[in-house]
Amino acid sequence: MFLMLNSNKMFFMFILFFSTLISISSNSWFGCWIGLEINLLSFIPLISKSNNMLSSEASLKYFLTQSIASINLLFYIILKMILMKNFEMNNFISIMMNSSLLMKMGSTPFHFWFPNIIEGLSWFNSFILMTWQKITPMILLSYYLNNKFLLLIIMMNSIIGAIGGLNQTSLRKLMTFPSINNLSWMLSSIMISETLWMFYFFFYSFMISIMCFMFYMMNMFFINQLFFMNINYMIKLSLLINFLSLGGLPPFIGFFPKWIIINFMLKNNIYFLTFIMIMMSLIMLFFYIRILYSSFMFNYLKLKWMKIFIKNKNLFYFINFLSFISILGMILEIFFFY
Question: Which residues are in the NADH:quinone oxidoreductase/Mrp antiporter transmembrane domain (predicted)?
Answer without folding.
Answer: 26-283
